[in-house]
Each structure stands twice: as structure tokens, then as C-alpha cells.
Amino acid sequence: MKIIFLIALFLPSIAWSSEISSEPGKAHDHSDSGMHSHDHHSHEGHLHETLVDGKELEVDPERFDKFIDGLADTQIAVVSVNGMVCDFCARGIEKTFKKDKSVKRVDVDLSRGKVLVAYNNSKVIDFEDIKLKIVSNGQNATDLQILDI
């Protein structure tokens, strides 16, 4: 009886998953299925596609565009951070950077492990200083990319 119950329980989910992707390990596409609707827009010419020192920025495009909206004569520090796992981590990092008078704006993206910091153009951005600020909150800064906008 238990076996029949388990088969009845799992059979529909196996059938459903095989409909999504007929080839194991291959990504599925549901753009025509009506399962999701996405608001797509062209990202051509956007700053988040910029290469910095040969590396592509790994930021959320929409979040980045919103972050830089209205900023001019600004340097953007894109900091990769390990150890950010909760909103408390994010608020601590924001609070630490906002104490710096040369910081215009701060955004913490937990899902991508990125901290965006907008500095005045006159600020000399020092990765060691950024690392100290991040480590004081219990995380580790692993990489820095700087953009001028």
C-alpha cells in the first residue's frame, strides 16, 4: 500500500518535469508557454554592460540602472563581497559606508554578493579602506571594479 501511495505521489511531478525539459541537464525555455511574463527592454549601451579591466560587471542590470539614475560626475565602486547572507548584513554595510561624507549613494545586492557605492569624483577610492569597512561588518571584500559616470 505504501508503494502505491508513493508512486501516486511522485508520478505527476516526474511527468511534469519531463514536459519542461525533455533532455536531462538541458535548460528549458518557457518563453512561449505563457508560464511567465517578463518585461524586456533593450540593454544596448547601458553602463552595466561595460567591461572594467577586461571583466564584465556582474550586477543586476535593472538594479544598476536604478542606482545610477540621476548621478553625474560620480565614481561607482562595484565591490564583490563574500559572507553577506541577510538583510542585517546589508544594513550594516550601508550604515558603515554612509558615514563617509564622499559617499553619495549605497546599494547592497545580497543575491549577487555586490555592494555598489557612488562616490564624489574627487574621492580617491582605496580598496584597502573598503576591505576594512566590509570586514568590520563581518564579511570579506574580494574584488573591486570602478566606473566613472
Write the layout of secondary structure elements.
Layout (H helix, E strand, L loop, with lengths): L1 H19 L30 E2 L2 E2 L4 H8 L5 E9 L4 H12 L4 E7 L4 E7 L6 H9 L4 E9 L1
Antiparallel strand pairs: 1-2, 3-5, 3-6, 4-5
Number of strands: 6
Apparent shape: globular
Low-confidence stretches: 1-54
CATH class designation of the domain at 49-148: Alpha Beta
> Structural class of the secondary elements?
alpha+beta
Give the percentage of residues in beta strands.
15-25%
* Intertermini distance: 67 Å
CATH fold annotation of the domain at 49-148 = Alpha-Beta Plaits
State mean pLDDT (0 to 100 scale): 74
Helical segment tally? 4
The CATH architecture of the domain at 49-148 would be: 2-Layer Sandwich
| Overall radius of gyration | 21 Å
Give the SSE order as H and E letters: HEEHEHEEHE
Description:
This protein has 149 residues and is of the alpha+beta class. The chain has a domain at 49-148: Alpha-Beta Plaits, CATH 3.30.70.100. Helices cover 32% and strands 24% of the residues. The protein contains four helices and six strands, in the order αββαβαββαβ. The chain has helices at residues 2-20, 61-68, 87-98, 127-135; strands at residues 51-52, 55-56, 74-82, 103-109, 114-120, 140-148. The strands form two sheets. The chain has a four-stranded antiparallel beta sheet with strand order 4-5-3-6, sandwiched between helices. A two-stranded antiparallel ribbon has the order 1-2. A hairpin with a 2-residue loop joins strand 1 (51-52) and strand 2 (55-56). The longest helix has 19 residues, at 2-20. The radius of gyration is 21 Å and the shape is globular. The model is unreliable at 1-54 (pLDDT under 50).
